[in-house]
């Protein structure tokens, strides 16, 4: 729009640090930042995007069709980069990170699953030969894939899935069948109208024996006509809370035959004669889910970055209520309550980016070990990915909701883009494993770790449990980031130990272990969350320390404030636990509260620069409230005028219904 809003300009004039320096750290280095900018420039410079209609105003069908048009431009570009060797399948995590960050459809993409689940599942579950065959086709988009695991009857309990794959040794084929309505696949993204292949999860039967769930490549549509293949029943599941164009669908099979080679056989195999060869570790079959949970944490950074950018810029522009009679109205960013809403989420954005990067490092390390036959850290990785996916998506979802409220009524408008971000993050709390269920998986690992604490050496992410369980670990409270980490560690350990004690008592009183677990599961979920808080603050602390070593003094100061705010915020949030389990005193708690308020004031001048440094260009932010120039009122009006209801001065319903009603004729 041109001129920058005066208030926003003033905020930027006061900036004390080099914004590009921070963007470079956030992006993971200068090269990565330049690559991202170049990629985004190419994507948004495509004129075809401009010709589109506003997606928010379209029907369910219209949204799908418009998003398909846009996605093809995006993915055409990605394919071009891949053909030119600029992105490689070997850096698949980077590819996904880039795609998700640079996605420029408003409400998801029908091709999202192809990249987010179909290809990762091939990478995790297919043999080298299968990968060579399927990945080259998928990577080049010669085929488009979906991932069909969840069924109408079962999402969480995957061992209870009902789809059957029976091996027929005479024809060397599997026969896929959906025996009940509850066995219909329900939710696979892209299956509605986009994908022509899908990875399907089904109970494997061979030689009359069931071997549990396995993963199969199934063609569902003709490659030329896109017509559904015989025996396949599929369709769209209808409008959702958000992510309309993701094209989630249903899928059923009536005795559909696929070749033996279409079972993904990296970990377990069915030989030609029907002999089943078990995986060295059956949980390796769940590898794709672990990868995607790790990916989801990275994706939360994208959504939260957008939400805090929108809300912070808007809060600098928005003025409301003079504090001194007759004085100017304050920028809402100056209210401490508002800073309390905003700044923790800015800090969370940076924290989740750092933690997500650290989680990727662990993921690749453990994966390398597994490839060499060492599965020692598999359970730890699973527990880590589960709790970080659960707490990360939950923090992002509540953060986005807080940002929506921070924008008052305007945040409720689709044109603000906050409702869509809310729908993205809400969905992430459910998909790839409901958050409660995932936290209980982590709890299971923590309980086992606690029970073996004296007899075995602890893996790195739980190594704090041993020292933190010692009576003298925290005999003096310290109000510092390290002190808070120690306090949170003690809370986590005592909560886990408490759960074990409660369960043991319940079992001793005659309760079955399963019932004791269920009855204690509210506490178990909280214990897993407490452990995850330790991980989040610790990884953020370690990651910021690495950034501090590279940063110039003015930036260092701001990063330290951000880290401290994050730690103090969570200490205050968890004060009841700290009071219960550690030696923190009422005076320490008061001092922390007062420090928190100081931190809000100290961060106030840096708020706009901190979100500018996230580097989201307007075309990707797509928000009336969050654009760089802060011309919010002009944009709001411009978007409102596009409403189809404004096309007629008098809507036909006036004559048809309202007028007769007002005249008492209806
Ligand atoms: C890139 C595109 C660009 C586009 C650009 C343009 C657009 C830009 C914008 C685009 C934005 C995005 C758009 C939207 C995309 C939407 C994506 C949505 C994707 C979501 C897909 C899905 O949603 S897909 C379905 C996932 N559905 C689940 O996720 C089920 C959960 N349910 C379980 O996952 C199991 O059911 C559960 C609980 C483990 C129990 O499994 P179970 O019953 O077999 O196991 P048990 O509990 O008995 O546990 C037995 C022992 O196994 C251990 N163990 C268990 N798992 C283990 C593991 N993985 N690794 C190691 N160990 C493991 C455990 O710890 C126990 O260990 P121990 O015995 O030693 O204690
Ligand atoms: C937007 C979106 C996209 C999706 N995309 C795909 C896809 O592409 N492919 C695919 O296969 N699936 C997909 N899913 C499905 C998703 O993976 C499942 O919805 C998810 O795993 C939860 O399963 P469910 O819906 O059966 O919930 P349920 O398992 O029925 O859970 C319902 C409630 O019961 C609780 N609960 C269930 N079991 C337990 C337990 N053991 N202990 C305690 N509480 C429990 C849960 O916490 C939850 O609150 C998608 C879902 C969404 C929303």
From TrEMBL:
Q: Give the UniProt subcellular location, in the record's own words.
A: Peroxisome
Its needed co-factors are: FAD
Q: Specify the domain of life of the species encoding this protein.
A: Eukaryota
Q: Where is the Acyl-coenzyme A oxidase N-terminal domain?
A: 18-144
Q: Which residues form the Acyl-CoA oxidase C-terminal domain?
A: 481-663
Key words, A-Z: FAD, Fatty acid metabolism, Flavoprotein, Lipid metabolism, Oxidoreductase, Peroxisome
Q: Which Gene3D superfamilies match?
A: Acyl-CoA dehydrogenase/oxidase, N-terminal domain (1.10.540.10), Butyryl-CoA Dehydrogenase, subunit A, domain 2 (2.40.110.10), Butyryl-CoA Dehydrogenase, subunit A, domain 3 (1.20.140.10)
- Domain annotation Acyl-CoA oxidase C-alpha1: ranges: 286-447
Q: What does the record give as its pathway?
A: Lipid metabolism; peroxisomal fatty acid beta-oxidation
* Family according to the record: Belongs to the acyl-CoA oxidase family.
List the protein's name: Acyl-coenzyme A oxidase
